[in-house]
């Protein structure tokens, strides 16, 4: 056994050259040495076969069995994945482009669903070693859901424009927005206070939200301004233009980026609820 331990190291090195980097040398070496111990116990010199020749095939077989035990994908799945991969490469050369799943399926006589399953299995079978990852790669791999400084600045600017757009609304529309979203009163209460019907208040709220959305978009992205106009302002485009101009003139970038009360930045705050409805 001591004499033939280098034989195990030789076959392990041969295999590792063809295997992905996540396969550990120690696992294969352990399997090879275990096979060597069993072979030393069963070897019969009287048969005339040199031990190195007798052990070589058995050690290679033990290493292959160890690899199959480490693989969570079945052999049939591996075979189908290799077949699809080879066909994709051949078609890419002949077509001078990446073949579609339907073209691969037609070439192999498979169903398109089988090809897509094989491609999915191929993606899932790829492993990454955390020891080989650089800090920069890990930062790109793990998604950070916290707002970036740029996101905070953009949100602060949108909130600033929203406040200006609410202030620039006609009095009755501004009352509906403030009472509905800031004071969280029901439409029935607002209708009673304004001496109008419930449906009219609902219509006014829709009209106000459309004006707010267009007023903010006119400052941030004019291409997003809705082509549909609100009913009461449809005949007077100059009033809409004046509304947009009033929002633009309500302050400068410094004033819009001035930090507001923290309560206004919470998702559950009235101002944030109004913002969500405007940008929906």
Secondary structure elements and their pairing?
Elements: H1 5-16, H2 25-42, H3 51-70, H4 75-95, H5 101-108, H6 112-124, H7 135-141, H8 149-168, H9 171-182, H10 187-194, H11 198-220, H12 237-248, H13 253-256, H14 262-265, H15 270-279
Helix pairs in contact: 1-2, 1-3, 2-3, 4-5, 4-6, 5-6, 8-11, 8-12, 9-11, 10-11, 11-12
Write down the overall geometry: elongated
What would the average pLDDT be, to the nearest integer? 78
Instruction: Please bin the fraction of helical residues.
Output: 55-70%
**Class by helix and strand content?**
mainly alpha
Estimated share of beta-strand residues: under 5%
Number of helices: 15
Q: What is the chain-wise order of helices and strands?
A: HHHHHHHHHHHHHHH
Sheet with most strands: none
Our measurement of the CA-to-CA distance between the termini, rounded to an integer number of angstroms, reads: 74 Å
List low-confidence stretches: 229-233, 262-275
* Number of beta-strand segments: 0
Q: From the alpha carbons, calculate the radius of gyration and give it in angstroms.
A: 35 Å
């Amino acid at each position: 056994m001591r004499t033939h331990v280098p034989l195990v190291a030789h076959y392990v090195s041969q295999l590792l050259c063809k295997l992905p980097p996540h396969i550990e040398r120690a696992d294969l070496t352990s399997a090879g040495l275990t096979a060597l111990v069993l072979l030393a116990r069963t070897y019969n010199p009287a048969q005339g076969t040199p031990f190195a020749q007798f052990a070589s095939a058995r050690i290679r077989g033990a290493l292959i069995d160890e690899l199959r035990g480490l693989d969570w994908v079945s052999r049939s799945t591996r075979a189908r994945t290799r077949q699809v991969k080879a066909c994709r490469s051949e078609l890419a050369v002949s077509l001078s482009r990446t073949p579609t799943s339907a073209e691969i399926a037609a070439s192999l006589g498979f169903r398109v669903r089988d090809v897509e399953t094989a491609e999915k299995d191929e993606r899932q079978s790829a492993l990454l070693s955390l020891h080989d990852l650089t800090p920069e790669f890990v930062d790109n791999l793990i998604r950070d859901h916290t707002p970036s400084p740029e996101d905070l600045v953009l949100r602060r600017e949108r909130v600033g424009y929203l406040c200006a757009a609410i202030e620039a609304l006609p009095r009755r529309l501004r009352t509906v927005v403030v009472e509905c979203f800031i004071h969280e009163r029901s439409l029935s209460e607002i209708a009673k206070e304004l001496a109008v019907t419930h449906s009219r208040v609902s219509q006014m709220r829709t009209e106000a939200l459309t004006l707010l959305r267009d007023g903010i978009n006119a400052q941030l992205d004019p291409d997003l301004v809705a082509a549909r106009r609100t009913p009461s302002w449809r005949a007077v485009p100059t009033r809409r233009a004046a509304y947009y101009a009033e929002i633009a003139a309500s302050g400068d970038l410094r004033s819009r980026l001035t930090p507001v009360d923290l309560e206004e930045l919470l998702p559950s705050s009235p101002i944030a609820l109004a913002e969500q409805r405007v940008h929906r």
